[in-house]
Structures are given as structure tokens and as C-alpha cells.
Amino acid sequence: QVQLVESGGGLVQAGGSLRLSCTASGRTFSGYTMGWFRQAPRKEREFVAAIPWSGGRTFYADSVKGRFTISRDNAKNTVSLQMNSLKPEDTAVYYCAARASSVIRTTGPEYQNWGQGTQVTVSS
Question: Using an 8 Å Cβ cutoff, are 98 and 111 in contact?
Fold first, then answer.
């Protein structure tokens, strides 16, 4: 049974920073791509960032490029999302997801495993 558990969400003022973490368990994630998605109230889930197993080329949504950084520690089965210069429009539930492929994809159905989500609220 694959489990993904997010942590690190919370309330922060605009311009502040938060770091989200996701710990994976239940199997080896060798070769897996890990991603972050978010869903704001009354909006569809959207892609935020993704990183391949190698930790090489990362990919970001235009709305977070230059402000967010995704990283992973394969020895610890963790993936992190450093979020800087946060804006009120970043407010959402953030989800960690795993895809059983080294090819990055930016759509939710391409990911097989999901965490329960962590709330990020940015006040103006």
C-alpha cells in the first residue's frame, strides 16, 4: 500500500515563505516522478511542480516559476516544495503525488498515488 503524507502547511502573510514536505512509504519509488498539485476553493486542481527520480530537470507552472522550488531526497523517500514570495492567490490545499514513470507529466490523472493534502493560506 503506497502512502504519501504531506506536512508543512499553514497560515502565512503575503511575501512570506513556507516549506512543504511529502514522505512516501509502502514501496520503493525508484524511477518515480513526484509532483505537487493544488486546489483552491471553487477551482479545479492544478499542477504546481514536478521532479523526476534523477532530481534533474524540474518543471513548474508559470504561476509559481521563480518563487517555488521542488527538491527530493531519494534516500529518505521525501519530496519538498519551498515556497517563497507567497501571494494570496497561492492559497489552496496542496497535494503530493507520485507517478510511476520517469517522464514528467503535468495532469493529475497521470499520477497514480496521492496524499491527503495540506492547507496553505496566504493572507494579504
Answer: yes
